[in-house]
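Posted in: Structural Biology > Protein-Ligand Complexes

Title: Requesting predicted complex, alpha-D-galactopyranose in pocket

I'd be grateful if someone could produce the 3D structure tokens for the following input. Sequence and ligand are given below.
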Amino acid sequence: MHDITHTIERFEHHFGPAHGAKVYFSPGRVNIIGEHIDYNGGLVFPAAISLGMYAVAKETDGDEVVVRSADFPEQEVRIALSKEILLDASTPWGNFPRGIVRYLKAAGYHPPGMHIYLESTLPKSSGLSSSACIECLMAAILEPSMLKNDASRTEMALLCQRVENEFIGVQCGIMDQMSIALGKKDHALLLNTSDITFRHVPLLPGEYLILIMNTKKPRNLVESKYNERLYECRKALEIIQKKKNIKYLVEAVEDDLHDIREPVIAQRARHVITEQLRVKAAVEALEKGNLLELGRLLDASHTSLKDDYEVSGLELDTLVSAARSAEGCIGARMTGAGFGGCAIALVKRDAAEKLIEHVGKVYQEKTGLSAEFYQCTTSDGVGILSEVQL
Ligand code: GLA
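-- Reply #1 --
Done. Output follows.
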């Protein structure tokens, strides 16, 4: 458990008395299944997790939002509310609050002056959505009315995605922001990205847990590879649309692949089509309590991401195959964008410790890297935890 008194102390050190300040938490997310289909109109099945970012925030009379982060103790991000807000490469992490303030204003909101101190338990660059986590946190702090209900939370997620797409410049889908805005403890979110409708599905598995395994591989090129996949999918869609009236690639069927001449483009489309089917089957299996089937689908998803979509790699493959070979594990796959980041394993609770030992050892031998493991729980979406009454 994170010690919030420490975050409050740091706030006071920089900004003075915290009395009346609010404490917020924004979760990270893990995707159970439905990978790389949120920008193809697909169904995805992520869950918000108990690792995330805490904030202590207090409104001021000033016309600046001032943000500090435990991760960058030397830096202070000051955002003047009355001036034009631009990217600033000297503090890249500050571009998230900058983008949120700018887009809130553009949407007609009036963010107030604010002092904010951030402290994170979410491993950085791990593919657990630290960007969407800080975006939603900032939106919640600066426009708390967005926390009111599902509709306003959906609006929040869409605004955060726009910041990521247009201001930060990463062409992500809507999955991460929606999981963080609308997460529910003990549930995953079955999200239809074609019309942004969703329902919460109870998770889990009594004697099983979902273990997160971090490759700790330094990630680079993720964005360019991600965009490359996005364009490959668009190309596949355009080809199929010449013969068939569909809006999204997930509406295609495997037979449509015959029209695609370039093998790589056909492969990408096959992943998208089959992954959509796996999501439907996985949710059905989970609701029927058929965890062995769920595990089998996780395995199949990984194989498809590795062979057809080609977003895995030595590190993720090693974690996944070592986990599968361990006793008590009934399925494993990479999660998130890929090219490093994290994988998940569906494992018997009482076998988790042994699995961690086994996978850690095999992974170290094969890659020279030390993996990290998190047995976290699911979490509610971003929200206010308490008010500081010191
Ligand atoms: C990243 C993106 C998401 C999604 C996943 C892959 O996390 O931000 O929108 O596309 O990759 O499923």
